[in-house]
Amino acid sequence: MTPLANSLSCLIALGCASFLWRKGSSPYRNGALLSVFLVLFSVFCYFAGDINDPTIEHYPFRMLALCLCLSTTSLSLYRRRYLVLAQSLWCWIELFGGISLYYHGIDIAWTRIAALLSMTLCSTFLSKISKEMEFCLMVFWLAVWVFF
Amino acid sequence: MGMDRREFIKSCSLVAVMGLLFGCRKIPLEELAGDLPSLKRFEDEVKLALSQAKKSLDLVKIPTPGALKIPGASTLNRFGMAIDLDSCDGCGKCILACNLENNVPLVPNEDAARGRFMHWVDMRGSAPFMCAHCGNAPCERVCPTGAANHTPDGLSAMMYKRCTGSRFCGANCPVQARKFNFNDAQKLGLARQFNREVPLRDKGVMEKCSLCLHRLQNDRLKFKTSLTVGETAEEWRGRGVKTACAEACPKNAIIFGNWLDEKSPLVKLTKNRVLYAPRELADLDPSVVFMRGRR
Amino acid sequence: MFKYLMLAGLALFLPGLYALGYSIFEGPSAWMVDSRTFWGTPISLFVFWIGLAHAGTLLSAIFLALEIKLDRRTALIAELSTLVCLVFAGIFPLMHLGVVENFYMVMPLLDARGNFANVGSPLVWDFCCIAVYALLSLVFFMTHLKTREIPALDKYRKPMAWLLFPLVLWVHTVVSLDFATTFVPQWRGAFFPVYFIAGAIFSGLALMNLLLCSEGYRVRLLERLQLIFSWFMCAIWVWDLMLKGSLCTSAFIFAGVLPQFRMIAVIRENKWGRIALSLSVLIGLFLERLYIVSPDFGSCAASPLNWIDWGLIAFSVGGFVLLFFGIRRYLNWKMEGAGSYFGEVDGTDLADAEQQELEKEGARGIAKPRKGFYIQPWASEEYHVLRLPLLVGFAFALVYSIWVLSQSVFANVEFSFANIVPLLYPVIALVTTVTLYVRAYFVEQAFTLSRHEKWASVIVLVLVAACAGAFFAGGSSQNSTNTIDSQSIGVDAPVSQSHARLLWNTRCATCHGVDGKFNEKFVREFYPVPQKLDVQRLDSLGTDSLVKVILNGRANMNAYAGRLTPSEALGLVNYMQTLAKQATESAKEGDNDSAR
Questions:
Q1: What is this structure's pTM?
Q2: Could you name the CATH architecture of C2-346+378-473?
Q3: A96: nearest CA in chain C?
Q4: What is the predicted ipTM?
């Protein structure tokens, strides 16, 4: 995927994230939204990337994980816990997707995984998540997405 | 009990002697002569396989194989083959020669009808097709027990005794070069040991082309033997060895040799030819390649 | 009710058992596989049952960890179904093997011959993950059962839930890697971990809903989740379709389209309607597993399944019903009773439910900081319980991976950290749990065992040790074919001394050394250590028995019957005697030298 499409994809994820976990929204709404987002990301990948490129295989799922990460900042309850869980999910997708690609001769993006893992660990130490901290986290994730 | 000490010792020693005799008995070779399959059946099966062969073979160009990239690999030897598609006419003599050399068993009729032969050499696109002994073999990577492994000389080898028959290697071979012993060929009277140097495989293990490993081993041993008496002072390069299929080819279309040895017929004859490999294997560094046309 | 279900299960199970026995006897040719597919129904069934096995731990452990309220009865049923599913999930990969008795070679442990499993193979990860998962699920279930009698154990449930949470996902991830790491075009997909986990949770939910129907009540939260997951699965299938251009239509209809009928109130409120919905999901997902394992199943063979395949399916379904409801009946007196059944949890909103839950707990007087539900980082109770065991687990995993990577087997294999990562968490979880419970029993004395239980645990430990010993010893190393000589010794032409020397140098010197004084570096790996070469010993053994040893092998000595003729062996024995004489002479000279 080209760098432009790659940055575009994280903007799409950012846009989608704002629709999730609205106050008083039902699990149906959130579940349906997640499924629709996944389809949206898939369609995006299908047109923006090369379908024969192995790294595209888990791209929509990585976008979904990023979207979940970004959306956790707007939660009202148990923010730290879900923040950590969402980042772990992203890490998980990166790591195991990477392992399966490794068996096809593609190197694992260790820097990305290490950055995410260290951020996951660090964010368990967060006590109060202020607006500034939210912003920093989001910038960090987007940076990981775009640059690593 | 009416048994004194003397009698007790006597009976004990008798038991011991019987045990000894039992231990020393000659285990008779299994009498299989009666229901050993005839050579004709092997020939017929090859004909049947030829008639069912796949017509297409999707080839792409590849560079000449170089030294292996795995740690501990030999820098002197990497054995392989090249199949000359210009001279091969798909007669299938290599298949029969391989079967007889490696004691490849017959299969029951229902398996043959499904195209499930044990032949190490298949016919695809009217050219012989066997395990490519990939330098980066996917089968070895997924074998859970390490039964499929790589020798430093570039052979993808099989340890039959270590195989649990999970068939993971078979699933991961992109060209289905691996054959699974679905049947107990020895019990069904479908196996025959034409060659004493190659063991018969048990039911439930995987097998495939070994590049006539036993011939290479014999040659290496002979070389080592001559080395100890000081006849030669070189490294072993496997010169003069030929696989059974290469030997049997009437058109000399199968060339066996050492990719890293300048004097090997393989290197000489592939020098100004264009090399090909099946599309699925092109990225896996195959040792057995195809050639067609001049450069 | 349970009785009739058990009878139905038995009716399916018995013919299925026959099919299982037949297919173990006949080997993998019993079920339908064509020349291109090497796997078949057993692997589909394995993936199916291991997916169902996620119901328990998912619902019980993850809900517990995330503090989503689930009543005791539902949680216990879920945990029990996990255990029973695991029994069947364990049988299928074993029976799928070509040489069933060699299954132990898959364990990543050293054996006496220095063999080591290829830890880079997803199958090894599978084996470890499932074994650890089964063990930990059992511990979790037993702890839950025992909390009724020993309330102190409740303290360990949540830490265990946090341990199981990643493990349960890890198991299915590793199962998905079985497929995703291969070169089969239909299995390409770095997204398989998520796909398989979603499928597993989906089928687990369907199974739970089905089981709850048989219990005569419902948990709306689970039904809703089932519907939501059907959407998510469809979204994943869309991506799969885009990537590979093919879709399992029947699975899509059964597990994607039909579950949407839950939106119709008449079907939803009817018990049989709910049963039909859950069954359709289960059938759809089973078809999907069949499709994944052998994508060109339908196109190649005229009928994709033969009677063995049906028998295996019947075996697992019948066996599950039989075993589950059997245990359920037996445990009835423990599960029923006042206070155990909290009523249904109607999760109108997950966040709301959590809020209510917290308020309830606050009302009950459990100390919990209310202000914004704020807990200091790294200060929760379960973390305190887990801290030390986790540390031990991590340390052990580190030592283990260093030990594995230093094995000589891996010296010539391209190997990276990625190959061993999937093994690490099961090791950590296992060691952590063992430490946790050992500490709870011996140090904190949180629970006591009755006499029977003590005996049972000692017997289990002894059995485990015995199995480990047997695996370490390994099987026989005899040649596949009987090549024991039928000729008597010394009949053919005798072998010259120089030829014997050549033979010795090529065949024997690797271990025994050119001068007969072992290659120490190599031989010290063996036990028992080979005997030292001396004249007296050779004489006492006699030529005949030494020839036998060379031909037929003994202890670590390989059999050379196929490679040497008896006369060559005899020549070697004679050569050994010359070597021994030389050795004693040189030793004497050495003594003389030192004396001088």
A1: 0.82
A2: Up-down Bundle (1.20)
A3: C193
A4: 0.93
